[in-house]
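User: Teach me something about this protein's shape.
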Amino acid sequence: MVGLSQLSLGRFVARASRAIRLRGTVNVLVTGSRELRSLNRRFRRKDRPTDVLSFPAMPGPNHGLAGDIAISSDIAAQNSRRLGHSVADEVRILALHGLLHLAGHDHEFDNGEMARKEARLRAKFGLPSGLIERTSGKRSASQTSQRKRKRRSSVVPRSR
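Assistant: First, the predicted structure itself:
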């Protein structure tokens, strides 16, 4: 994947896990939408691809495993183009979202707690808007500033 090696993703997952206080090893699979659709159908009975799935370790002796995360590289690439950031950042956003689920957070039932935690962690790691903000229609401060930068950069090119 452009701009993101297995090593750098592993380092990000380790840093984010420490920040979340998630204990145990996390396995991350970055694959295509076909595989995510298959996993989504098998484990959630939803016959469509999705961007990220989290699978917490089963109770009992798990030998230090926190769980597994599966990320669609196809959807990550689509999101990054649509939202104007790198594929590497999108994969990190998806990994962070998955890690929060592994830590027991559930944005569907927690009155915004996961969204607030995700926003704080994205800011800490310098990442653009996250999944919960995108799907809820709320615009974060980082999204607003990204849009302003885009408008300015379309008028006057900036070097990075």
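Now, about its shape. The chain has seven helices and three strands. The chain has one domain: 6-155. If you'd like, I can walk through any region in more detail.
User: That's plenty for now, thanks!
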